[in-house]
Design brief:
Number of helices: 6
Radius of gyration: 29 Å
Order of helices and strands: HEEEHHEEEHEEHHEEEE
Distance between the termini: 67 Å
Largest sheet: 6 strands, antiparallel
Oligomer: single chain
Structural class: alpha+beta
Strand content: 25-35%
């Protein structure tokens, strides 16, 4: 019965590791070697600990060494590290850098660390998508900020999210990051929006009128266009 329980636990652990996609490695401090315990083979066979540093990106190597050192000398019993790892360390061709997140614990024997057991998660695809989102966001942020017309975005409830450079100039914002007055005034309470916009399901609105806001020393004729932005399920996401 005991053997069956141990087998079931080991099987469950293996299944869990397979599902999460984590790789597991062992840094054997007594034998000064590194080997794979689970997942994609990173070396193909046991190698010395110093050899594995060759796979780490030069800019991350000292951070990685410090991570191993803290666990090896007993400074930390567990630690984590983000670093880049080269899957193509052959001396030929271009490096194949992967973004890794490593979390490890030290195993002790007679009060001294003897092994470092580390789970490694390949975050390459996640990081790539994050970088793509950042690039797209920066591109659209540049378009928004440098538009020749004043633009601002509000939440579905009518609270200011952001305003571009021209809008901040027209409305005499007190800074480039926001405005004390407009951040506290709801769009649905401002003239003329309080009379023409439906709180539940606002529709497109256009007008040309004299806008007077004494709190911001505004008295200017404006062409105003309001455009609610709905998703594919007709849920209101923003008001521009």
């Amino acid at each position: 019965m005991k053997m069956n329980i141990m087998f079931d636990e080991q099987q469950a652990m293996t299944m869990a590791l397979n599902i999460t996609g984590n790789h597991v490695m062992c840094f054997d401090l007594k034998e000064n070697r590194v080997y794979d315990l689970h997942g994609k083979a990173m070396f193909g066979n046991n190698v010395g600990i110093e050899v594995c540093y060759n796979y780490v990106h030069p800019d991350d190597c000292e951070k990685f060494r410090s991570f191993i050192r803290r666990l090896s000398d007993g400074t930390d019993m567990e630690a984590e590290c983000h670093y880049r790892w080269n899957y193509n360390y052959t001396g030929q061709g271009e490096p194949d850098w992967h973004d890794f997140y490593l979390r490890a614990i030290a195993e002790y024997e007679d009060g001294k660390p003897v092994n470092i057991i580390a789970t490694i998660n390949d975050e390459t695809e996640t990081k790539r998508k994050e970088r793509e989102v950042e690039q797209v966001s920066e591109r659209y942020r540049s378009i928004f900020e440098n538009s020749i017309i004043g633009m601002s975005f509000y939440t579905p409830d009518g609270w200011l999210i952001d305003a571009n450079r021209i809008m901040r100039k027209i409305c005499n914002f007190d800074s480039d990051t926001g405005d004390a007055f407009f951040s506290k005034v709801n769009l649905f309470d401002m003239t003329p929006f309080n009379e023409v916009l439906d709180h539940v399901h606002p529709e497109d609105y256009w007008a040309c009128s004299l806008s007077v806001i004494p709190e911001r020393n505004m008295r200017v004729y404006l062409e105003i266009s309001v455009h609610p932005i709905y998703d594919e399920h007709d849920k209101l996401m923003y008001i521009s």
